[in-house]
From TrEMBL:
Top-level division of the source organism's lineage: Bacteria
One Pfam family it belongs to: Alpha-amylase
Protein name listed in UniProt: Alpha-glucosidase
Region (Disordered): 1-20
Organism encoding this protein: Kineococcus radiotolerans
Entry keyword annotation includes Repeat: no
């Protein structure tokens, strides 16, 4: 036993005298509302569509739903350009329908998490329209990041910074001033040095918490606070590798945690306290502050999402992130797909070692160069998912992954909606391929998504992945997810994990109660460890014959 304890990774847990908060080991299902289910045939998913599909979520076995933005928006960035943070887009529904959806989910035992977008508003937001009308030097402009342009008449941008979606990060307004948009021009950045911005977001948090929302996913949580003091650095200076922690002008500044301390005070006004998870793309050692009990409570780690299907890489990611979770007194988060990345069935079917730039070139080819091995991608995806669901912490699933959906890589340029496509000069196709509406049925004008066409076209091969087809197949990906989530709920206990010895290319760890997860990352079969197989990502247990096939995960209980 002493040798096994040397490999133990034990995150801190709440005091034994208090029940664990629901989110520590929750399975959270991400809904991208515009592409989930359309109730009225206008091509856009909506809140009644979500409410109608709650039975699917119940049968899947998730603990919570996270809703991507459903706020009023011109869709310059898929809804992340928010006109009003305290309302529902009329194309998606009404506040009354939001309340009905929350009540239905809660009645089914499912918590509700909503996206909050605090780095920027849309350029249609009331305060931004006021800022443009008021002119330079006005109090209205102080709520956003405005700066005088360079040149005699302010005709040049204040700096040469580039926006995340491509192109300049500054937009002129015609009076010598420019506003900062870290992302698209339709997304002006808030000035978080302004007290009215702070207070308005506290009001927004209470608005949704009072409507029964259980938690918040915080978009680009590491941006918010910015240092706009003169002189502004050049883009090259901003990108320097030797910048000290917290010294970047708008990424991951230490002052941002003052914002989240105030948010935590609001969360703790409620019983039970509301929770939050940070989307913070920061250095690994900086993530813990976002996830601290004094801050948001959890932070996404995207390390598995960015890893090849490789034993050493997966184990290293788990060890490091459980150590970080222990340091911050929280639980880790695990994710393989979301609304911003190529679906992991396709990623795992592509050659190992492809980085984001290579995948962008792959999308530009329509998904043909190189041609993915989707059979292998699906096999690896199911194995990786079973591995992830065996880990302590929260698991985040993205809509459609339970159907084994690959990326729709061959969308025609004429239908693309992601601003990345235009802003990059047509060199980055963007994220639409993972946002294509779901296939609920093999038949119908939009495979059951709605009574009419969908806002992004679905390929004909979606029929084979439809939920009604998979529902009847005990070996389908949908059935595998249901089985894995049921066993996860049945076996869920403390947050400890102990790595055990395993052959090269295999990762094996034990959880409290003595059950074990074993993943074979190689292509060759290895001997199956002793125990009773209760879950297999590949062939059923009675067909394994004492061997663990390649690219397969099993869960084992101690032998009777």
């Amino acid at each position: 036993m002493s040798d096994l304890l040397d490999h133990a990774t034990t995150p801190s847990s709440p005091p034994a005298t208090t029940p664990d908060p629901w989110w520590r080991q929750a399975v959270v299902y991400q809904v991208y509302p515009r592409s989930f289910a359309d109730s009225n045939g206008d091509g856009t998913g909506d809140l009644p569509g979500i409410t109608a599909r709650v039975p699917h979520l119940v049968s899947l076995g998730v603990d919570a739903v996270w809703l991507s933005p459903f706020y009023p928006s011109a869709l310059a960035d898929g809804g992340y350009d928010v006109d009003d943070h305290r309302d529902v887009d009329p194309a998606i529904g009404t506040l009354e329908q939001f309340d009905e959806m929350v009540a239905t989910l809660h009645a089914a035992g499912i918590k509700v998490v909503v996206d909050i977008v605090p780095n920027h508003s849309s350029n249609r937001h009331r305060w931004f329209r006021d800022a443009l009308a008021a002119g330079p030097g006005s109090p209205e402009r102080e709520r956003y990041v405005f700066a005088r342009g360079r040149g005699e008449h302010g005709e040049l941008p204040p700096s040469d910074w580039t926006a995340v979606f491509g192109g300049p990060a500054w937009e002129p307004v015609g009076d010598g001033e420019w506003y900062l948009h870290t992302f698209a021009p339709e997304q002006p950045d808030w000035n978080w040095d302004h007290p009215e911005v702070h207070e308005d977001f506290l009001t927004t948090l209470r608005f949704w918490a009072d409507r029964g929302v259980d938690g918040f996913r915080v978009d680009v949580a590491h941006a918010l606070v910015k240092d706009m003091s003169s002189p502004l650095p050049t883009a090259a200076e901003l990108a320097a590798d030797d910048l000290p922690d917290g010294a970047h002008r708008f990424w991951d500044r230490d002052e941002v945690h003052e914002v989240y301390r105030a948010w935590r005070a609001v969360f703790d006004e409620y019983d039970p306290p509301r929770t939050a998870v940070a989307e913070a793309w920061v250095a690994t050692h900086r993530r813990a502050r976002y996830a601290s009990p004094e801050g948001l409570g959890q932070a996404f780690n995207f390390d598995l999402l960015r890893s090849d299907f490789d034993a050493a890489s997966f184990r290293r990611v788990v060890e490091e992130n459980l150590r970080l979770a222990a340091e911050s007194g929280t639980s880790s988060t695990w994710v393989l797909s979301n609304h911003d990345v190529v679906r992991h069935v396709s990623r795992y079917g592509l050659p190992d070692g492809m980085d984001e730039a290579a995948r962008a070139r792959w999308l530009l080819s329509g998904g043909t160069d190189p041609a993915p091995d989707l059979e292998r991608g699906a096999r690896r995806a199911r194995a990786a998912t079973a591995f992830l669901l065996a880990l302590p912490g929260s698991a985040y699933l993205y809509q459609g992954e339970e159907l084994g959906l690959p990326e729709v890589a061959d969308l025609d340029a004429a239908v693309l909606q992601d601003p990345t496509w235009l802003r990059s000069g047509h060199v980055d196709k963007g994220r639409d391929g993972c946002r294509v509406p779901l296939p609920w049925t093999a038949e119908g004008p939009s495979h059951g998504f709605g009574p009419g066409p969908s806002h992004l076209p679905q390929p004909s091969w979606f029929a084979a992945h439809a939920a009604d087809v998979q529902d009847r197949d005990p070996r389908s990906t949908l059935s595998a997810y249901r089985e894995a989530l049921a066993w996860r709920r049945r076996l869920r206990t403390g947050e400890e994990l102990v790595f055990e010895d395993a052959p090269e290319g295999v990762v094996r760890f034990r959880r409290p109660g003595g059950w074990t997860c074993v993943t074979n990352f190689t292509t060759r079969a290895v001997p199956l460890p002793p125990g009773r197989v209760v879950l297999s990502s590949g062939a059923p247990a009675d067909e394994l014959g004492g061997e663990l096939p390649g690219e397969t995960t099993v869960w084992l209980l101690p032998a009777d």
